[in-house]
């Protein structure tokens, strides 16, 4: 895999202490995991909050040994460090202007223990991945934040994240069993090991004594003890978890629980074991609409966790923000101006228990006026629609905001008895300070509410307005109602100046002592939780300048990153947008830039060519998890269209206008390469091509043993397949890829895709119509991906005309054998044609006409990015289940990163995306299946087994009925 080179001039440009830091760690951390270039330092300088700091160095640490070394050097040089997992945090906890330690690679171990009662996790495990491991035990981890599909365990524990169902009973604080911690001096404490505990107690006797002193002082102070107990009866993540001194006596137990919610300011959580909680099989939901917020809050007060799993409050502004979104219930538009709603979920072990709990809810709310009858549904598609209302609130505000403004989501909790009046008071503050678009929603069972509004931080007067508003919010929450200024999002930089306001002087002094005891040099994530700067919440605010309409709505939450094939190679979608914004800011001042800023702009633009453009797979999977649906790949295509140049335009037009000759030349090239391969052998061929590519400066495409042979020409005489006047007809359009690229030398089945497709259709009794002039046709994908939009649209328009002709104006379905091509065809021709790719056509039209005898083996299956966007995952699973004893869908493999020809021209992208593939197959598979020929080349190469179209699998298993 190609590695980005660390430039010594970037190290020399750093302050001397950071140069020394680099010199100290460079023997233990390889240069390709030390980031000093401006572009990636800017890229890593953002998290999900509205703050930005640019680190001096980013270190990708892979092991506890490396973390220990980094902490020892940081302590020696007194250099601050900050730990970073997924970076979805909302209060500025995961950014630094010093050393940012990023969890990279080997932090995803997950071990289920005691028949599912305990799960041991490393900090790089995504929350949802942990829950997938627990499915077969009917268990889950307690914390269930809205970001669970993206947030990692390290952040979930360090922020004491909770969510809709866990409340305060099942959060990390209540469910932690053991923990492995690395402290400021590199010492490791494993609370599951008595030997480790004894060694730690001996080495850190001063810390143990200070913990005992603080504990004894709190227990002796009745008023302080009662204050702590009272404040943690509701959700509270403001400051440290000092309830540990009340709930536990043993110093090790106190240390373990202080780490929960410490936001990386006391040490590094290298491993955590949770006690799991029940995951019920049966569930039902109801959207209960009340006349106003007061009635909704009265309703909440009658609900209990004994029979309700979740109750999400939504004010009228919340409901209004999503009422025009597709799929929302039409009655949302007709609600009265003050109406509010509770989205209630109940769960049970059986249908009978579920019904009992539904009845309990209806009985509890029987005396509260509602706008509509209370109707629960236990049908998954129906209750998912209801939950889409709740999930759509935050993105709805993000999508509607004025470009350049930031979406802010705040997070407070009130005593339950004050919930209604406190929310009304919050709404009054919105009006007073001009936040008319603000919405309120939240976890009502815990009297925990979020409020979302937009803010422009580019204008001083707007920053002042925000400050005045937040000061009054703090007065309302902390002083008037004694609530929590941060209920589940963590203190961060955002609320650090207000910790003492909420807790009072005595409790705050205890927190300062905790920080000092754990971090005597004040080098671990300074400025977070404990911060003497009263204006910290107003500094280092993140600018969001306009760049391009495709990406301007990005809120930099990081939800896109989990899908990105380049995430461990160069940059992610969020990071691409962050750096484009920096480039845009510099370019906007182009005539007034200092010499250093000019150099910075030139460097960023030059580095972005590779880090942002060339290594973007343009797969669009980022849009599937983006709250506002941004496809960063589309933006990359636009950038490519700006830089193709005159020669590129000429070449694209020439190939598009002579497409048959173009594909013919590719076929000749493949045939020539294959002949040479046969003559010299795989080892020699690999050595020659690697050397040639290296000498050419990577301009010559990479060869692999799985390079396809030239495809056989389709015999037009077999297109009717001896079927006369069949009632089942299909127009089969073989993609240009399958017409050009045949099987590789090592593929199990040496037939071409068109041969196999025709065989399957024949068995199912379909009359097949193949366009006779197909060799000149293309859907436009190769042109679109490189930014040649005019040629892409011209080719797709040409293809559409031919397909309309052969399908009798759309009457006959069209089958294309390649998923990415089909996705574009559906997108640009879908209104006029019924277009299918192999998986959907097999599932919907072929299986019923075939007798399937499954193969007695374990197969590998790769769902392509285009298939994911077409929601074909379930149909892939159904076909695999019908055709094989067992199928492996590697969890960590998403887009393969081959991206048309990137597997040849930028093979490191493909290698990075598929780094876990071989291990995921566990040596149990001899064949793999997908639905994109180019993807299958990369999958075969890195999985070291033959991957072919899923049509081959069907043909293996199917007989005509």
Automatic annotation (TrEMBL):
Belongs to the FAD-binding oxidoreductase/transferase type 4 family. The keyword Transmembrane helix does not apply. This is D-lactate dehydrogenase (cytochrome). InterPro entries: 4Fe4S_Fe-S-bd, 4Fe4S_Fe_S_CS, Cys_rich_dom, FAD-bd_oxidored_4_C, FAD-bd_PCMH, FAD-bd_PCMH-like_sf, FAD-bd_PCMH_sub1, FAD-bd_PCMH_sub2. Keywords: FAD, Flavoprotein, Iron, Iron-sulfur, Metal-binding, Oxidoreductase, Transit peptide. The keyword Flavoprotein applies. GO terms for biological process: lactate catabolic process. PROSITE patterns: 4FE4S_FER_1, 4FE4S_FER_2, FAD_PCMH. Its EC number is 1.1.2.4. It comes from Desulfuribacillus alkaliarsenatis. Its cofactor is FAD. Residues 51-279 form the FAD-binding PCMH-type domain. One of its GO terms (molecular function) is iron-sulfur cluster binding. The lineage of its organism: Bacteria, Bacillati, Bacillota, Desulfuribacillia, Desulfuribacillales. Residues 543-574 form the 4Fe-4S ferredoxin-type domain.
């Amino acid at each position: 895999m190609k590695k980005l080179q660390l430039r010594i001039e970037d190290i020399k440009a750093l302050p001397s202490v950071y140069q020394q830091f680099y010199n100290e760690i460079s023997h233990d951390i390889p240069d390709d995991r030390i980031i000093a270039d401006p572009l990636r330092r800017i890229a890593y300088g953002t998290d999900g909050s509205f703050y930005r700091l640019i680190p001096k160095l980013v270190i990708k640490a892979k092991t506890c040994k490396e973390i220990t070394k980094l902490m020892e050097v940081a302590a020696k040089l007194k250099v601050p460090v900050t730990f970073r997992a997924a970076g979805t945090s909302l209060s500025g906890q995961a950014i630094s202007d010093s050393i940012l330690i990023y969890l990279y690679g080997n932090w995803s171990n997950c071990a289920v223990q005691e028949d599912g009662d305990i799960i041991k996790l490393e900090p790089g495990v995504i929350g949802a991945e942990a829950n997938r491991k627990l499915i077969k035990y009917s268990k889950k981890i307690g914390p269930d934040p809205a970001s669970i599909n993206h947030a990692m365990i390290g952040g979930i524990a360090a922020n004491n994240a909770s969510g809709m169902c866990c409340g305060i009973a099942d959060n990390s604080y209540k469910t932690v069993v053991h923990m492995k911690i690395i402290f400021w001096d590199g010492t490791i404490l494993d609370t599951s090991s008595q030997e480790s505990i004894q060694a730690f107690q001996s080495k850190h006797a001063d810390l143990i004594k200070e913990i005992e002193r603080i504990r004894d002082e709190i227990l002796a102070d009745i008023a302080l003890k009662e204050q702590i107990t009272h404040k943690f009866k509701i959700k509270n993540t403001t400051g440290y978890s000092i309830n540990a001194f009340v709930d536990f006596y043993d110093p090790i137990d106190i240390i373990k629980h202080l780490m929960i919610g410490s936001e990386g300011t006391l040490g590094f959580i290298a491993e955590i074991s949770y006690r799991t909680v029940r995951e019920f099989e049966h569930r039902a939901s109801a959207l209960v609409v009340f006349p106003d917020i007061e009635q909704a809050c009265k309703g909440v007060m009658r609900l209990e966790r004994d029979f309700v799993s979740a109750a999400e409050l939504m004010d009228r502004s919340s409901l209004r923000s999503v009422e025009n979104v597709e799929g929302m219930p039409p009655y949302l538009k007709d609600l009265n101006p003050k109406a509010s709603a509770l989205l209630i979920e109940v769960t049970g072990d059986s249908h009978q228990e579920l019904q009992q709990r539904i009845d309990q809810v209806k009985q509890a709310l029987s005396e509260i006026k509602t706008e509509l009858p209370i109707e629960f549904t236990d049908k998954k598609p129906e209750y998912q629609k209801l939950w889409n209302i709740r999930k759509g609130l935050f993105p709805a505000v993000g999508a509607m905001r004025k470009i350049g403004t930031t979406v802010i989501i705040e997070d407070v909790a009130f005593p339950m008895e004050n919930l209604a009046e406190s929310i009304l008071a919050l709404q009054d503050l919105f009006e007073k300070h001009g936040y008319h678009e603000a919405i309120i929603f939240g976890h009502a069972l815990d009297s925990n509410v979020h409020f979302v509004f937009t803010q422009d931080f580019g204008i001083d007067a707007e920053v002042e307005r925000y400050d005045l508003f937040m000061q009054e919010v703090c007065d309302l929450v902390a002083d008037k109602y004694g609530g929590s200024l941060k209920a589940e999002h963590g203190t961060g930089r955002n609320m650090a100046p207000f910790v003492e306001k909420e807790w009072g002087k005595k409790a705050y002094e205890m927190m300062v002592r905790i920080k000092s005891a754990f971090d005597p040099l004040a080098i671990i994530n300074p400025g977070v939780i404990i911060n003497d700067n009263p204006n910290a919440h107003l500094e280092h605010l993140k600018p969001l300048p306009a760049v391009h309409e495709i990406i301007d709505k990005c809120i930099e939450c990081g939800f896109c990153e989990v899908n990105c094939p380049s995430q461990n190679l160069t940059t992610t979608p969020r990071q691409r947008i962050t750096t484009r914004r920096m480039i845009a800011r510099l370019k906007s001042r182009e005539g007034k830039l200092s010499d250093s800023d000019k150099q910075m702009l030139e460097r960023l633009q030059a580095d972005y060519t590779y880090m942002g453009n060339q290594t973007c797979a343009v797969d669009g999977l980022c849009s599937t998890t983006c709250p506002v649906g941004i496809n960063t790949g589309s933006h990359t295509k636009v950038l490519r269209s700006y830089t193709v140049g005159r020669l590129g335009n000429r070449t694209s037009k020439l190939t598009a206008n002579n497409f048959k000759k173009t594909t013919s030349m590719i076929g000749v090239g493949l045939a020539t390469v294959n002949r040479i391969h046969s003559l010299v052998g795989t080892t020699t061929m690999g050595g020659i091509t690697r050397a040639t590519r290296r000498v050419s400066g990577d301009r010559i495409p990479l060869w692999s043993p799985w390079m396809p042979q030239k495809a056989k020409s389709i015999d037009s005489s077999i297109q009717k397949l001896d079927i006369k006047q069949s009632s089942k007809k299909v127009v089969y359009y073989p993609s240009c890829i399958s017409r050009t690229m045949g099987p590789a030398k090592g593929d199990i089945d040496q037939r071409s895709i068109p041969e196999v497709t025709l065989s399957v259709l024949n068995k199912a009794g379909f009359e097949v119509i193949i366009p006779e002039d197909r060799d000149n046709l293309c859907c436009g994908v190769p042109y679109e991906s490189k930014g040649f939009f005019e040629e892409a649209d011209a080719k797709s328009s040409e293809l559409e005309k031919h397909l309309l002709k052969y399908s009798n104006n759309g009457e006959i379905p069209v089958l294309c054998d390649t998923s990415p091509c089909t996705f574009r065809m559906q997108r640009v021709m879908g209104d006029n044609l019924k277009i299918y790719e192999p998986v959907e056509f097999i599932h919907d039209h072929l299986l019923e006409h075939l007798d399937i005898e499954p193969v007695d083996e374990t197969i590998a299956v790769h769902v392509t990015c285009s298939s994911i966007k077409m929601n074909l995952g379930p149909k892939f699973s159904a076909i695999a289940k019908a055709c094989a004893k067992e199928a492996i869908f590697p969890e960590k493999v998403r887009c393969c990163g081959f991206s048309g020809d990137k597997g040849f021209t930028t093979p490191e992208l493909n290698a990075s995306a598929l780094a876990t593939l071989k291990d995921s197959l566990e040596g149990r598979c001899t064949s793999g299946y997908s639905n994109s020929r180019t993807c299958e080349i990369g999958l075969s190469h890195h999985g070291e087994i033959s991957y072919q179209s899923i049509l081959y699998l069907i043909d293996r298993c199917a007989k005509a009925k």
